[in-house]
Write a structure and sequence with these properties.
The strands form two sheets. A two-stranded antiparallel ribbon has the order 1-2. The chain is flat, with a radius of gyration of 15 Å. 42% of the residues lie in helices and 27% in strands. The protein has one domain. The longest helix has 19 residues, at 64-82. It has three helices and four strands. With 103 residues, it is of the alpha+beta class. α1 packs parallel to α2 and α2 (64-82) crosses α3. β3 (39-48) and β4 (51-62) form a beta hairpin. The termini are far apart.
């Protein structure tokens, strides 16, 4: 792994949640594959009490553009979740965050 592929994989690996989380009532685990050729594929989760929020991201392609797009989408999803938005509101969240109100 070298060059842009290494950089793209590093972006995705740096934003992943812990690969496994286990409590008395739930276990969440995941791993992106192939781990050395990542680009726009990743996952995220959050556990709040007995509720698990799970998100899977699949930006088209590989490399730096796909990994950057995935990082932005994952960040928007996390912010929206922390703000208490539901799934329908999450769909329009990035447009509302853009300074011009456009996407």
């Amino acid at each position: 792994m070298a060059g842009a592929d290494a950089g793209a994989a590093e972006i995705v690996w740096s934003i992943l949640p812990p690969l496994t989380l286990a409590t008395d009532t739930i276990t969440v685990t995941g791993i992106p594959e192939p781990c050395y050729d990542m680009g726009g594929d990743t996952f995220d989760y959050a556990v709040h009490g007995d509720i698990v929020h799970l998100a899977i991201f699949d930006a088209l392609g590989h490399g730096m553009v796909a990994s950057t797009l995935t990082a932005v989408a994952l960040s928007a999803c996390r912010i929206a979740r922390r703000c208490g938005l539901d799934l329908a509101e999450l769909n329009t969240f990035p447009q509302r965050c853009h300074p011009s109100g456009r996407h």
